[in-house]
Amino acid sequence: MGNVERCDKTLPINEMIFHVRRDAVLRARFLSDLEGLAREFKLSRAEYEALRDKDPRRLMDLGVHQYYVPQILRLFFGAAHNSNASAALECYRRAYPEETAQAMALEERLERSR
Amino acid sequence: MARVVAAMAMTHSPGLTGWFTRASREYQELALQATAEMRRRLEAARPDVLVMFTNDHLLNWPINNMPEYTVGIGEEHVGPAEWFDEWLAMEKYRVAGHAPLARFIVNEGARRGLALSYLREMQFDDGISVPTHYLNPDARFCLVPVTMNCTVPPIPTPERAYQVGSRLREILAAYPGDERIAVIATGGLSHEPGGPRYFWVDEEFDRWFLDLLKRGDHTALLRECTLERMEAAGSGGTAELLAWVLVLAFTRGPADVLAYMPAVAWRSGTGMVTWNEMA
Question: Which end of chain B has less Cβ packing within 10 Å, N or C?
């Protein structure tokens, strides 16, 4: 099966992000006191560091549900008019250079073929 | 007795509202024309209620407790959820629910062996919000939202979605009212939200899947379009097509494919489909 099967349903980050997304106070703390928040939700040091470093590959290797990864990037970079597109793309480009380059090449090819 | 008068499916990619103009002008026009045609057919069918099937993007339920299906039984539905306001670039919408029908679905489901969770207040992400923006912008139709798990392992199979769709068809037909109902699937086509292939779409898979719908042979579709095939075309996202497979069970014969766009800019294979004949 695919990448989503790698998620660890019991990983504390996966619980934490559910609550942070729904709560403005927790969203503010995510930016101002990530380490304290991580402690309260019982994240491991490795989870906290992957989160802090905004690293999609390490997050997914630890078992973060893939859908939550761009959500985490939105928590860091914001969402207005999808302004996080380039920031998110940069994080993925670093974490998955080959896959992201293929996707960008596909987009260019589709643009050219029209 | 209630009657299903229309069946449709469309992509709910947040790009369709949130960053619409980042796709080519050609795709923008295609998407606008196809959704306008869906709305025209919907208005011609004169439904009282839209029953919308879509996946919950881990918004209403935490990952430790994800039900297979959840019915929104509120008197009114308000969206998008706060977290999605900026992302979807949409004004808030308010749509009347249809609590008697929604509660009937839950209870009649239980009598017929179908475990359906429910929420009196549901939060809405792109799954309900984007199709509502295009198909029910003036909130003239009541809404019964039904979310399904398409992304938390174990992901149900297409056979299971079709089986649930068949059961729901019987349940809606048994509703003791004269409501006219439209069933609408939202999600897909190929995409891998957040995965290593986040910015990729699989045009070949999408066209193959849409051709299966055009053939209208349900047995062939269920045989060929396995969960493994969906996952290979975009893990954790393409399986949103389970909603389409569920709605397929309400139909008979070929689907009209109104549009298809391999829209990398919207991060999703994007399509709009209607069926002409109800089962």
Answer: N
Residue A103: what pLDDT? 87
Please judge whether A3 and B235 are an interchain contact, meaning their C-beta atoms are less than 8 angstroms apart. Answer: yes
Name the pLDDT band for A78 (thresholds 50, 70, 90). confident
Closest Cβ–Cβ partner in B152, B198, B232 for A92: B198
Kindly state whether B228 is in contact with chain A, defined as any CB-CB distance less than 8 angstroms.
Answer: yes
Beta pairing partners, B181: B4, B49
0.90 exceeded by pTM: yes
Q: Please, are residues A97 and A57 in contact by the beta-carbon 8 Å criterion?
A: no
Asked if B24 is an interface residue toward chain A (Cβ–Cβ < 8 A), one would say yes
Average pLDDT of every residue of chain A:
91
